[in-house]
Amino acid sequence: MGHFEKKSAKTKEDIPMAAMPDIIFMLLIFFMVTTVLREVTLQVKVDYTQAQNIEKIEQKRLVSYIYVGPQKLSGTKLGATKIQIDDSIIEDVAAVRNIMYDKLKEQPKLIVSLRVHDEAEFGIVTDIQEELREAGALRINYSTKQEQS
Amino acid sequence: MFGSDKEREDPEIGGAGMADIAFLLLIFFLLVTTIDVDTGIGLQLPPKSDQDPPPIKTRNMMKILVNSQGQVLMGTGETEATPVTQVKQNLKDFVTNRGQDPNLSVSPDKAIVSIKTDRKTPYNVYIDMLDEVMGAYQELRNQESQSQFGVPYEQLKEGSERKKAVDNAYPKKISIAEPNK
């Protein structure tokens, strides 16, 4: 009798691992490209106040920051209280209105986050708030850190 | 001479470690890139209007004044000096009065908090005070949420009917008064 040998399948059962580094590199490059760190070099000193009943702002793209605090001068000296928006010191409070109005046009749901040095006087914040009202940017946020109780 | 009859090793770099190097880098990036979430106290500024605000009964308006010495004064009629730690309780009494005390609010719906500051008010005192105000509303809403739905206020979904119901029970009406010039 003719005896036929059954051919067994000769496919390999293991997945080739050669492409693994490429996959990882892809992920790595993806992360490197997508993480945008908008670092603002602070020209004013801001020590955050602490509060207990605070909320998180999840939508980062809606937020624009206004920094208020004593200006950092050469060395460790501190100058007068100044306002900083994005990367420049604003000398005149009235300029806040136009800057924020433009930002509001771009982003109608704008949230203005005030990062104020905890020993600042409130008068300057009042002025900023008045300008924001003029500009129509009404959603504000006083940036504070969580109090450890 | 020397034993040069050894087999030469082929000068290739093994690619096996490549994956590990990439993994290390990936983990490093995953750990290092922290996207810091901004936290703080949210407020809605009153819109600019030329009209005078409608008259409000004194009993429905809790005036809080933080003066230049960092003292907190509060009250519906005459303001009196209050320790910051007392603000929350006072405000809760004021909001949940429901018409009992003739000097306090008629209903939570009508209760308005008016915050007034001075030009020289220290910022941190202002924030402490605002924190207390927010805390009062937070606690009231939490109570309401617990009694109505049996879940804490934090667990109510943003924009859900339940959250709206709780928010409407204790609406946050905080107005920023014009500062003293």
From TrEMBL, chain A:
One of its GO terms (molecular function) is transmembrane transporter activity. One of its GO terms (biological process) is protein transport. Pfam families: ExbD. Coiled coil: none annotated. It is found in: Cell membrane. It comes from the Bacteria. Its main location: membrane. The chain crosses the membrane at residues 15-37. Keywords: Cell membrane, Membrane, Protein transport, Transmembrane, Transmembrane helix, Transport. One of its GO terms (cellular component) is plasma membrane. It is a single-pass membrane protein; Single-pass type II membrane protein. Belongs to the ExbD/TolR family. This is Biopolymer transport protein ExbD. It comes from Fodinibius salinus.
From TrEMBL, chain B:
Its main location: membrane. GO terms for molecular function: transmembrane transporter activity. GO terms for cellular component: plasma membrane. PANTHER family: BIOPOLYMER TRANSPORT PROTEIN EXBD-RELATED, EXBD MEMBRANE COMPONENT OF PMF-DRIVEN MACROMOLECULE IMPORT SYSTEM. It is a single-pass membrane protein; Single-pass type II membrane protein. InterPro entries: ExbD. Belongs to the ExbD/TolR family. Keywords: Cell membrane, Membrane, Protein transport, Transmembrane, Transmembrane helix, Transport. This is Biopolymer transport protein ExbD. It comes from the Bacteria. GO terms for biological process: protein transport. It comes from Fodinibius salinus. The lineage of its organism: Bacteria, Pseudomonadati, Balneolota, Balneolia, Balneolales. The chain crosses the membrane at residues 12-32. It is found in: Cell membrane.
